[in-house]
Amino acid sequence: MFQYRYSDIDHSVNIIYAVLLLWILVIPCNVSVHGTHVWPVPYKRLDRRPDVEPYCQALYPFCPTGDPDGQIPCMKASDTISVFRLQAPVWEFKYGDMLGKFHIMHDAIGFASADTGRNFTMEWYELFQLGNCTFPHERENVSAPFWCNQGAACFYEGIDDIHWKQNGTLEKIGEISGEMFNEMARWVQDDNETGVYYETWTVKTDPGANATTWFESYDCSQFVHRTYRKLFELGAVLLSKTQTNYTKIYLYSGEPVYLGDDAIFQQSSTKDLATDIKKFYHSFRPHQSVLEVIISVFEAYEETILEKTFYLYYNSAYWKLQMKHPYFRITYKEIPLP
Ligand SMILES: *[C@@H]1O[C@H](CO)[C@@H](O)[C@H](O)[C@H]1NC(C)=O
Ligand SMILES: *[C@@H]1O[C@H](CO)[C@@H](O)[C@H](O)[C@H]1NC(C)=O
Ligand SMILES: *[C@@H]1O[C@H](CO)[C@@H](O)[C@H](O)[C@H]1NC(C)=O
Ligand SMILES: *[C@@H]1O[C@H](CO)[C@@H](O)[C@H](O)[C@H]1NC(C)=O
Ligand SMILES: *[C@@H]1O[C@H](CO)[C@@H](O)[C@H](O)[C@H]1NC(C)=O
Ligand SMILES: *[C@@H]1O[C@H](CO)[C@@H](O)[C@H](O)[C@H]1NC(C)=O
Ligand SMILES: *[C@@H]1O[C@H](CO)[C@@H](O)[C@H](O)[C@H]1NC(C)=O
Predict the structure, then answer these.
(1) What is the DSSP letter of 223?
(2) What are the residue ranges of helices labelled H in the chain?
(3) Low-confidence spans in the chain with pLDDT less than 70
(4) Which of 39, 80, 143, 261 has a Cα at 20 to 30 A from 103?
(5) Ligand 2 pocket member 252 (CB < 6 A)
(6) What is the pLDDT of the chain when averaged over all its residues?
(7) Does any ligand 2 atom lie closer than 6 A to the CB of residue 52?
């Protein structure tokens, strides 16, 4: 029988290895370091999902047909589960010329059990819609802008074939075992508990291939990519016969400057900054269709407002972006399967 005994030296070497390994695992591979910040700014995960503020009221209930406790059914280990890539236009863009112009798509993943014939849809989206994740509310007697910006995973029975096929995609991209599915389900629950805030914007220096990314979005398509990567890690082979394009919403800016969290709105020393941030978000107050508002504001005010400053809210703190041409873009570009 083997027994390991660590001397103090072995022990400290192990700690150094552990720290290095953690560092490698935690820092994504394409980060760069300019000045004092690590870019892109790592998305902050929480220990657990906080309760939603009662002020935030969903116009459309989140995940109405999902399990109330977010349970994902356990599959038989030997089952064969088909995996589907699902994509459909965001409902508010299904009509009119927005769809053709911008390809604003929502992404999800479908699963179908060979054993039971049951199928399921899994997606990640805003609890209070995109507008509430992109712009804050002004509340009486609350000094800081107020955000209803949680997003979450929703798992429910059924795949609505017609919905996904209509101007979208429903494509089988692989098969996994029931065991892999169950492993993925545990990961989804953890991911759902720790990554809770929706981030609309990807912020880069410019649209070029060598641009530095300052911030990465955290949205439905990022969830789909994370899940594909998890399945790949577990040994799944995923293949698509068509181009796998995704919608991304970009801002272009110089190196961001960290401003601080809600304390900005409580201290007298940052009173002017607090006023500027509130004024900025006041001009973006959402009305009916958020993206339409964003687009019209950007089109109309590009030169005047955005040549100056965009106040980005990321990881529950504010950052100042010095905007650069072309300021803003919605792209629909290929991101290959892992
Ligand atoms: C956005 O949040 C506000 C404030 O809670 C709420 O009244 C509104 O219904 C939300 N919008 C949507 C589309 O859920
Ligand atoms: C994710 O969290 C939300 C919000 O708490 C919850 O409604 C949902 O059921 C959870 N989803 C999964 C798959 O755990
Ligand atoms: C796709 O969208 C266009 C434009 O909104 C619409 O005219 C067309 O009927 C849609 N196609 C299907 C199959 O629904
Ligand atoms: C805001 O504060 C004022 C003065 O204390 C109070 O009269 C008012 O009811 C408060 N409004 C809300 C919405 O709490
Ligand atoms: C999912 O199940 C429903 C109901 O049995 C069926 O109509 C639909 O075609 C299935 N979709 C897929 C992609 O398996
Ligand atoms: C990106 O950087 C590489 C290596 O420095 C260079 O060869 C290439 O031309 C650059 N591409 C663009 C689009 O700037
Ligand atoms: C999908 O992305 C590729 C390259 O990323 C692009 O050339 C192509 O036009 C995109 N397809 C659509 C339908 O926009």
Answers:
(1) H
(2) 8-26, 98-102, 129-134, 161-165, 178-194, 220-233, 271-282, 290-301
(3) 1-35, 91-101, 285-307
(4) 39
(5) no
(6) 86
(7) no
Q: Which residues contact 265 (CB under 8 A, 6 or more apart)?
A: 143, 144, 145, 274, 277
**Ligand 7 nearest atom to the CA of residue 332, by list position:** 14
pTM of the predicted protein model: 0.86
| 220 is an active site residue | yes
Measure the CA–CA gap between 201 and 330, rounded to whole angstroms.
10
The atom number, within ligand 4, closest to the CA of 140 reads: 13
Q: Are 86 and 110 in contact (CB under 8 A)?
A: yes
CB–CB of 246/220 below 8 Å? Answer: no
Q: Are 181 and 75 in contact (CB under 8 A)?
A: yes
Peptide bond just before 42 cis, omega within 30 deg: no
> 262: which DSSP letter?
G
Q: Which residue has the least CA distance to atom 13 on ligand 3? A: 166
For atom 9 of ligand 5, the residue with the nearest CA is 161
The pLDDT tens digits for 185-236 are 999 999 999 999 999 999 999 999 999 999 999 999 999 999 999 999 999 9
pLDDT of residue 303: 53
Residue nearest to ligand 1 atom 4, measured at CA? 56
Q: Could you tell me if 123 and 107 are in contact, meaning their C-beta atoms sit under 8 angstroms apart? A: yes
Catalytic residue among 106, 133, 148, 154: 106
DSSP 271: H
Supply the residue whose CA is at minimum distance from atom 14 of ligand 2: 70
Burial bucket for residue 135 (CB in 10 Å: 0-12, 13-18, 19+)? buried
Whether the CB-CB separation of 182 and 231 falls below 8 Å is answered with no
Mutate to test the pocket of ligand 4, among 137, 141, 143, 146 (most ligand atoms within 8 A of CB): 141
Q: What is the pLDDT of residue 89?
A: 86
Q: Over the range 94-103, which residues count as b (16 or more CB within 10 Å of their CB) and which as e?
A: eeeebbeebb
DSSP 78-107: T-EEEEEEEEEE-GGGSSSSHHHHH--EEE
| Cα–Cα distance, 261 to 130 (Å, whole number) | 22
